[in-house]
What does this fold into?
Amino acid sequence: MTTAVSLDNPALVAPPHTIRITEPLALECGHVLPGHTVSFETYGTLTAARDNAILVCHSLTKGAHAAGRHAAGDPHPGWWDAAIGPGKPLDTDRYFVICADTLAAGRSTGPASPDPATGKPYGMRFPVVTVRDMVNAQHQLVARLGIERLRAVTGGCFGGQQAIQWAIQHPDQVGNAVIITTTPATSAHSIAIFTVMRRLIRGDPAWNGGDYYGESFPAAGLGAAIAAAVPLWMSAEAMDARFGRRPARHAPAARGPADPAAGGPADPAADGPADPAARGPAAGGPATRGPAGRRYTLDAEFEVESFIARLAAQAGHQLDPNSLMYLTRAVEYFDLEGEYGGLEQALAPVTARVLFLSYRRDWRYPAAETDRMHQALRAAGRDSRHVVLDSGLGHGAFLFDVAGLAATVADFLDQRDG
It folds into this structure.
């Protein structure tokens, strides 16, 4: 068991922790990992009774760096820094918050890890993992930390899938569950977009069948995959409000390489370097100014183009393409009705108080689908509530519009768990 003293982080300034789990981990695919590494971060102070822990499950392109900074002067806060900290919804003056890279993500065991059989990175030889596998790995971590019961588990999208799976698989160890922008199964539409993303990565010659570690990096394929996904999580209304038809701004790039395990795409509301292509010769011939500021070029002409180019460029510094492919497959396999024979059967073990949060403009994970889980729990006599919020950011609101959910989450956690 790891001691609490080494993990307490009231100032929210500390490097990530790494634990090697030596117990075998049986995976749903039939493979057994003889052991695995978990990278995680903690915020706040664990009580002597170890009864104030909240597990945050990260979304698809995020990771263990959920809040604070790795060192004084670090310019990059965690991806949910607006939600975790003193006086915030996950109040670190009261709660001990944990966030860990899932299997196949960040610095936890995944395709970039050495295969014990060869000593070389697994690449595509890493076994396919599911959300259930990831929760089992997290359960091993929580046990190693000496925590018998979580005050709460929470997450959005892919993180929400993990959170509801925790409440199903380990009902006696979850007091509260906050499930954000999650439905009982991943839709065919989302699967189709994930398929396009994987094809774009595989289509980059530098991908090399997944064996690119230490060689050329498939930055073009990964960037194209991230670009293709933007309309998946950002609604038409959000794009119109944020960008409209405003022309692109052509500022010099100002970002250098970063650790690929550091996190996911930047805040869509943040301004950053413009389309790198704008710095070279204009595609389509020399740029000429015309009506409404048109440049008559195939380089970025509109602000929304520059925004997508920034995300694509940043992805190469923040994501492992193989990891992204494994994680999208895990999201696709998530299907409570298919796995358990129905929602009632799937949710029958749940004893936690549950808060579902949806967004009215989230067409990817519709509130009506989330409400089916809420109604199934209510029919079984469980303590469940479903709050539908409104934000122009749609599906991405839980990441970038934390103020909209802050009071609801804080009030829910303030109440005593069952």
